[in-house]
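pasting for ref
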Amino acid sequence: MIEYAQYLLLTNPLEFYTAIVATLGVAFWMLDRRSMKAALKATKGAEINALRLERQKTEASVEQSFATLQLRCQASRDAWRDHEWRNGPKLRSPLRSSEEQKEIQQLELAARAYLEQFKASAPDPGSCDIEKLAAYFSEANRTSLEFARLASQLPEPKNRFH
């Protein structure tokens, strides 16, 4: 092989230099390809971590909206108890709860059903499918809006005497 290289160098030096440059070009292309693959892998890893973080933020936001709704339901229940204590209870059996209490309970059950539906729609934790995660994020926004809608439907007592 060395003899052929010497023969090629002596007879056609331009072809010899062309072969060296082509060989170096292929070698650098291989190195560049490896570094591109490593960079792509690092980018995908960073993107996956960003999506996981966004998913955790979204789940925390939905849980916070649900907790806020529960607090508002409890505040509404307390307001109705105070209202009945100040204004006297309606004539009904003491074992039966009022219509307002039932309505508050129904709203809480509906909120819990929305939360369970949201949790059931969650993709696998290791899943990196962007379409599924986008659908999951939109479901989270929809669930938070449902919690806000349910909170706006809570019955508030009206004072008879001002």
